[in-house]
Design a protein that fits this description.
Elements lengths: L14 H9 L3 E3 L7 E3 L8 E4 L5 E3 L2 E10 L2 E10 L2 E4 L17
Length: 106
C-alpha cells in the first residue's frame, strides 16, 4: 500500500469556499486502514517528516500541486498542507472534492 501522500487532480473549488473551509477548522479523515506518510514537500521525493496513525484526521491549511499519486480516493497531484512544512497526498484524504478545498499554499 502506497502511503507517500500524493493526490488526484480535479476541478478547482471557488476561492471563497476554500477560504471558508480552512477558516472553519474542518478536519478531514485519512482513508481507513492507512498510516499516512507526511512529507516535507509535495512529493514522495521529499523527506519523511512523520506518519499519521490509523484513524487520523487532518486540518488542511492550504493545498498545492506536486507529484501525481494514486490512492484510495483516486489519482491526483494535489497535496494538502497540514502544518508548516508538512504535506500529505490528497488521494488519501476524504475531502469530498476532486479539487481544492483550501487556499493555495505559498
Amino acid at each position: 500500500m502506497d502511503t507517500n501522500g500524493t493526490t488526484a487532480d480535479g476541478p478547482a473549488v471557488a476561492a471563497t469556499t476554500a477560504v471558508t473551509a480552512a477558516a472553519s477548522g474542518t478536519r478531514y479523515p485519512v482513508a481507513p486502514g492507512y498510516r499516512l506518510n507526511v512529507r516535507s514537500g509535495p512529493g514522495t521525493q521529499y523527506p519523511l517528516v512523520r506518519s499519521l496513525p490509523l484513524g487520523a484526521t487532518v486540518a488542511i491549511s492550504c493545498q498545492k500541486y506536486g507529484e501525481w499519486v494514486t490512492g484510495p480516493y483516486g489519482t491526483t497531484r494535489v497535496w494538502d498542507g497540514i502544518a508548516p512544512g508538512e504535506y500529505v497526498s490528497d488521494s488519501y484524504v476524504r475531502t469530498g472534492s476532486d479539487g481544492f478545498v483550501a487556499p493555495r499554499c505559498a
